[in-house]
Amino acid sequence: MGASSDVARIQPAWARFAEEVERPGRCRFCAHPRVHWDGWAERTATVRVERRTVHVTGIRCRRVRCAACRTSWRLRPSGLVPRRHYQLCVVAEAASQHLFGGVAQQPVADQHGCSRRTVGRWLRWIADCADPGALGSQLLAAVGAPVLPRLRALAPRLRALRDAARRKLLERAATVLQLLEALGLAWGLEPPGLRGVIERVLEGRDRIPSYRAPLIPELARRHPLLE
User: Fold this and answer.
1) I need a labelling partner for 102 at 20 to 30 A (CA). Which of 24, 117, 122, 130 fits?
2) What's phi and psi for 126, nearest 5 deg?
């Protein structure tokens, strides 16, 4: 089965969401109760479907507008994050291939249809989007046990890097990625945890933290026991 058949699996579900989604009862920005439909918007996305990275076009999103503050926003189906073409399922897979499989960034980029520089930006974003201590605290609370899961080490070729700063960044990215995966499983979310957890904590927002300022406040609050 090719990429076209993979796309055909998800397009009907996303189309149904656009047709059937209910209009919000109030504005997400000012909480005013008068919200109107405001047409449609189309976008594209690169996502993971059945272990394959595919490019999807013509994704229709209903747009709504507040009658008071006049702010508009789009209603998106689950798994489609705002203002990002490459979805977090793709980011998680690419990062895992590099961090744990030891695959060089260029082959990873070739497989997912992006540039080597983009893969590097994803790794830095993952490393800085959350605090490992805060994730550990939330994971302990979710599973009700005092022991964190055993984490996988970086691929041997990355552990051997002479650039200490680079190695430290990759180690942190690997830790954050795995803790998000464990937290997603503890919360009963569909993997990957990078997508599931971030989608949950940022539910309803019109953007996710940028590459320049990646920190997600909800994933950066330490528990006193972890200080």
Assistant:
1) 130
2) -60, -45
Is the residue at 145 inside a domain? yes
| DSSP single-letter state for residue 130 | S
At 222 the pLDDT is: 59
In this prediction the pTM is 0.89
**In this structure, is residue 81 part of a structural domain?**
no
Strands 35-49 and 72-75: unpaired
Give the count of beta carbons closer than 10 Å to the beta carbon of residue 219: 22
Calculated CA dihedral for residues 92, 132, 216, 169, nearest 10 degrees: -60
Phi, psi of 172 (to 5 degrees): -70, -40
Phi then psi dihedrals of residue 143, to 5 deg:
-95, -15
Q: Could you tell me the CA-to-CA distances from 104 to 7, 109, 127, 138, 174 in Å, in that order?
A: 27, 9, 18, 32, 15
Assign 73 to helix, strand or coil: strand
Q: What is the DSSP string of 28-72?
A: TTT--S-EEEEEEEEEEEEEEETTEEEEEEEEEEEEEEETTT--E
Average pLDDT over residues 175-179: 97
Confidence at residue 149, expressed as pLDDT on a 0 to 100 scale: 85
